[in-house]
Amino acid sequence: MAKAFTPGLKVSARTGYRARRVLPIAGDVVVKVGDRVGADAVVAQTFMEGDAFPIRAANLMGANPKDLPSLMLVKVGERVTKDMPIARSKGIFGMMRTDVKSSADGTLESVSDSTGMVIVRGPAQPVAVRAYIAGDVVEVLPSEGVVVENAVALVQGIFGVGGETHGLLAMACAAAGETLDEKHVTPAMKDAIVVGGARMTAGAIRKAKAVGAAAIVSGGIDDQDLRDFLGHDIGVAVTGSEKLGITIIVTEGFGDIAMAQRTFALLGGHAGRMASVNGATQIRAGVMRPEIVIPLEDGRGGAGESAAAGGAVAGVLEIGTPVRVIRDPHFGVLGTVAALPEQPAVLGSGSKARVLEVSMPDGRRITVPRANVELIEG
Amino acid sequence: MSLPHAAKSPPPPDRIQVIVATDCGSTTTKAILIECVDGHYRQTQRGEAPTTVEEPFADVTLGVTNSVTELQELSGRRLIADDGTVIRRTSPTDPDGCDVYISTSSAGGGLQMMVAGVVRQMTAESAKRAALGAGAIVMDTIASNDQRKPYEQIQRIRELRPDMVLLSGGTDGGDQKKVVELAELIAPAKPRPRFGGEYQLPVIFAGNKDAAPAVQRVFGQGFDLSVVPNLRPTLEQENLGPARDRIHDVFLEHVMAHAPGYDKLIAWADAPIMPTPGAVGDILQTIARKRGINAVGVDIGGATTDVFSVFDGAFNRTVSANLGMSYSISNVCAEATMPRILRWVHLPMDERELRNRVKNKMIRPTTIPQTLEALVFEQAVAREALRLSYEQHKAFATTLKGVQQQRTVGDAFSQAAAGATLVDNMKLDLLVASGGVLSHAPRMEQTALMLIDSFEPEGFTELAKDSIFMMPHLGVLASVHPDAAMEVFEKDCLIYLGTCVAPRGQGKAGKPCFAWELRGAVNAKGTMNVGDMQLVPLAHDAQCEMTVTPEKGFDMGAGPGKAVTRTVRGGTVGLILDARGRAIEVPGEEGARRATIQRWLDALSVYE
């Protein structure tokens, strides 16, 4: 029988965390099982094949493509440098010869006698993968990378921009409901993960970047402020490759919304500790949420604990389950499931949908579609 | 006694009485049961379950088993064996199992292709048409004249992770150099396949046949090259069939075979697994051919919108990537702009607040509107997503470009030219809607008005919706039992909303637009003024003779001011008389705009 799950975001005081760190192509793993690594440590490295530079050599010399191999000054596989002559036309009685120069440093890869095209392969690019979190190497994936494990406190955000970074957690707001403004951000927060409460303002983001903070985390953000900072609108939520100089993570959503008290308390409890964050968000098949990972041990601590690795979690809705309402008109409301009626109900929109009742901390109850809540996972 | 194993080829149609079909979507696997009852094929049960192609399950057949188990529970017929496979019947009297199991799939992002051709408007466009027609998402189209420098093209190819590449270029017997050059750009870029680093990237060559040996040399190692007949053998001729068939084969042999659990699914099914959009295209072509009509189908999803059209037998499909109602809703707002979306809204709304709500829907795509205000806004976004998708479709579904036309003196005054769109709203007979925002709208009137506002049909156009998104299942069923597919399509798949009656033209608001008269199931007549809408109830199984006499300046298909008589079909909404003119325009002044929208909504009882 099929089961219905409701997605949720992980907010955990302690969990096993395994970071799978692999190269995009085969390479060398430079650590071994049992090694203790820091977040910055290189664990695997390789060289990516360089860019290919096509040159229409026969065309440039006014020669027949079939004659190109005999006009080459360099053999396939030999090194070339930028502007070095690599082919020369016969000219007229040996005069008025035309040289074809390489458009890049690299190696001559191919010479085509059917199209007259020459390909120069640029120098290989070094690629290194770092550990991302401090912990122990528990597995080596030969020629690929490693798995680093540790016991961590883990907070999944709902949306982020910018990639992986790390720094000390710095609490900038005194309460989960406090707006993170520029006055909260100080020069002492250089290289830190700045943690606010409710919405982060445009001024706070600008100042955090100006002081050199590694990341800024808060409950919400205004769409207009994000657009202004990025310089463009985000049409589809596939992020992480932005080069912004700072990683931004929101834990709840867009608009004026307070960080969940539990999340705020968890982060506050680790103020001053080193944390790794990643703003990469991918809301497609294979969903990926941004995360704040706080290693709890200096060494191995994850063994035997349930391991989290990225993606959102899913759980079953039951009476008493803590949930967050994720759509207007009750967006952001936190509570527990009070009733799960079997029969679909007619909503204010006129649609029929399965609903649940949420009991709020003040004792009031609201009815919302089941699709409009998410679990608050421990 | 029933056997839990799969036959590799389906039984003959006269032996098929019980059919199980599944569509493995990105998030949900939908199963339907079709049974022959008293000599008629009907869809009798449906079930669904989460798709299980991703971790932690990583086996698509688990979702299939779950969804078919729902069919089993609802029908009382045992369909799933103890080992989870679909049971086949051994005799016509066997109470358990089915005669045929078939499936489509778009799980894991569907089929993603890169296409390349020498000239962007000619062979590259034909290659794109072949890929889209086969049900693919085209990630990029590389052409010798696409304005990018060769190294930029190579960079782009390196970034992509396609499932396969379709390369075309040159007419048979024509220039070979350009297409070989293209091959020489693609090969060193070494695009890596999306699934599995081990298997070789499939490349299909469908270009100048004389260039095939040189292309084979270029793709010598590291690629799985197959050569099929040229998809543009002459400039005047497009031959997409062989390339499309090969795409389907490669999809099964490589892409599906590397997706988790698909080796089992392929073995279970009695017919090749089809990409979901390819199956939808097939059923739309089948109905257009059998009824002798022109048809447009639209499927608006969370991430993309597919538009299919058949005009005078010519089939086209487009995928508007990033025009959708959840994952891509923010992109719709960016492309359409908020003022164009809000022109359809009759309630006061705060734009800044709406922008945050749009982003919240984007990051939590499975939520549904709870309030009327939220529904009205989503349906306004849908109108613009559909309008933009249809515009893209019209620009793509054209006659062949690059063809020399023989013209007479009379043609010199005609606007028709090579590359003209095939889409003609006046000739459109049937518009079929599917996708959550259209299929699950609380009132059919909402679906009908969303379709009319965004597609702006002209003349007489039947409107219908796919009841439970059954078209993919019926598309693949058409390959094993076309008559059963047609019967279920007409009886169970389509819900007819009614007929839209709308003359082409523009006039001053309040002035006469057309007169109408109905004879038959309903006898009535009246007149319509420019800017008005009216609903005439006409039951879904009722038909009438209708005469429409447009005013000068308005056209119902016979020319400006000329009367037209047609048989019109009713539906769950009825007959919709639309005198707003084409293109539909709303007043610029805010108060007048909201009053006008309110009047149109009231005329059709859209939000009652």
Put simply, the count of helices of chain B is 17
Question: What's the end-to-end separation of chain A, in Å?
Answer: 27 Å
Q: Give the helix tally of chain A.
A: 5
The mean pLDDT of chain B is: 89
Number of domains of chain B: 3
Radius of gyration of chain B: 25 Å
The rough form of chain A would be described as: elongated
- Major sheet strand order of chain B: 13-12-11-14-15-16-24-20
Task: Give the beta-strand count of chain A.
Answer: 30
- Unreliable stretches of chain B, pLDDT < 50, 5 or more residues? 1-7, 405-416
Percent of residues in β-strands of chain A: 35-45%
Strand content of the residues of chain B, in percent? 15-25%
Main pleated sheet of chain A: 19 strands, mixed
Cα separation of the termini of chain B = 54 Å
Radius of gyration of chain A: 28 Å
* Mean pLDDT across every amino acid position of chain A: 88
Bin the helical content of chain A. Answer: under 10%
Helix content of chain B: 25-40%
Q: How does the SSE layout of this entry go?
A:
The complex is a heterodimer of chains A (378) and B (608).
Chain A: E1 6-22, E2 28-29, E3 36-37, E4 42-48, E5 52-55, H1 57-61, H2 68-71, E6 79-80, E7 85-88, E8 99-101, E9 106-111, E10 118-121, E11 125-130, E12 135-141, E13 145-156, E14 159-161, E15 164-171, E16 193-195, E17 199-200, H3 202-211, E18 215-221, H4 223-230, E19 247-254, H5 261-269, E20 274-278, E21 291-295, E22 307-308, E23 313-315, E24 322-325, E25 334-339, E26 345-346, E27 352-353, E28 355-359, E29 365-369, E30 373-377
Chain B: E1 18-24, E2 28-37, E3 40-50, H1 60-75, E4 100-105, E5 111-117, H2 123-133, E6 136-143, H3 150-159, E7 164-167, H4 177-189, E8 201-205, H5 212-218, E9 223-227, H6 241-258, H7 262-268, E10 274-275, H8 276-291, E11 295-300, E12 304-311, E13 314-321, H9 329-336, H10 338-342, H11 351-363, H12 372-396, E14 430-434, H13 436-439, H14 444-455, E15 459-466, H15 471-477, H16 482-493, E16 494-502, E17 504-505, E18 512-520, E19 524-529, E20 533-536, E21 543-550, E22 554-555, E23 564-569, E24 574-578, H17 590-603
Parallel strand pairs in B: 1-4, 4-10, 5-6, 5-7, 7-8, 8-9, 11-14, 14-15, 16-24
Antiparallel strand pairs in B: 1-2, 2-3, 11-12, 12-13, 15-16, 17-22, 18-19, 18-21, 20-24, 21-23
Helix pairs in contact in B: 2-6, 3-4, 8-15, 9-12, 12-14, 15-16
